[in-house]
Design goal:
- The protein is α/β, with parallel strands linked by helices.
- It has helices spanning 3-16, 28-34, 47-76, 92-95, 110-123, 142-148, 170-182, 199-204, 224-230, 240-246, and strands at 81-85, 103-108, 130-135, 158-161, 189-193, 233-238, 264-269.
- Helix 1 crosses helix 2 (28-34).
């Protein structure tokens, strides 16, 4: 599944090339190229499939900016411990400005982390904070591996799960949230992306075997704020449409019913 992360890097490379990008990711093109993908891709022959691809790409750009904001707000509040779950080709350790003393943990399986390390060496990339990789499957005892790598659950952490929960069955999502909560001191923060209801059915029906959409499993709960409150988090949600408009990238098509409630989530541990 980590090849999907290379596809995300390609989207970020294209955004970086825009005249007024929402973010700049100077390593994205290197990840995409090393992963066998060019910085751009030809349009799909089927118009509906091409529209779906463009919609997914747009959502990746908006969610990246949204979670950048979550991390910046956490840093401004004094949080100096960051955990990226299912980190993939995330380059925030290298492209964002971090306060002194920030420790950033990238949790993923060994294969994507090894691939990523080879690209980082090739690019001679230098992290802007203390970066610690944790090679572990999220189905295994990742909290133990994270603790062994130096994570301190007694001080606040900002957790990011970007494009991750959609690939997990519901029981695994619940377990992940319970484990995050057990490692989160008061004042911890979290940024999540959730799949709006109806999206999986709409996209997976026409998905090619082996494509990212063919592996989508979990939609957001009916009330994500209430759901996260049950896990000990005070959450706020936004739709992709709301954030896109706020970022100067308004969506001009009529809203779909599944756009409420929002799939971009920020939360604070009380």
């Amino acid at each position: 599944m980590w090849a999907t992360a290379v596809g995300v890097a390609r989207v970020r490379a294209l955004e970086t090339e825009r005249e007024n990008p929402l973010f700049r990711d100077p390593l994205a093109q290197a990840f995409a190229t090393a992963g066998g993908l060019g910085p751009s891709s030809p349009p799909l022959p089927d118009e509906a499939a091409e529209l779906r691809r463009l919609a997914v790409s747009f959502s990746i750009v908006v969610r990246t900016k949204f979670l950048d904001d979550v991390l910046q707000q956490a840093s401004a509040s004094g949080v100096r411990q960051v955990v990226l779950l299912g980190a993939g080709m995330d380059s925030r350790a290298f492209r964002m400005d971090w306060p002194e003393g920030t420790r950033l943990f990238e949790v993923d399986t060994a294969a994507p982390l090894d691939f990523k390390a080879s690209v980082l060496r090739q690019e001679r990339a230098v992290a802007r904070c203390e970066r610690i990789t944790v090679a572990v499957d999220l189905r295994d005892d990742w909290p133990g591996a994270l603790a062994a790598a130096g994570h301190d659950p007694t001080v606040p952490t900002v957790w990011i799960a970007e494009g991750l929960l959609i690939y997990l069955p519901e029981d695994a999502v619940e377990l992940l949230l319970a484990r995050i909560g057990a490692q989160s001191a008061p004042g911890s923060r979290m940024g999540l992306t959730l799949s709006p209801r109806g999206v999986i059915e709409r996209f997976r029906a026409e998905a090619l075997a082996g494509s990212a959409a063919s592996m989508w499993l979990s939609e957001m709960p009916e009330d994500p704020v209430d759901w996260l409150a049950g896990h000990g988090w005070e959450a706020s949600t936004h739709t992709l449409r709301e954030r896109a408009a706020a970022y100067g990238r308004p969506i001009n098509t009529p809203p779909r019913p599944e756009e409420q409630p929002g799939g971009l989530v920020s939360a604070v541990r009380r």
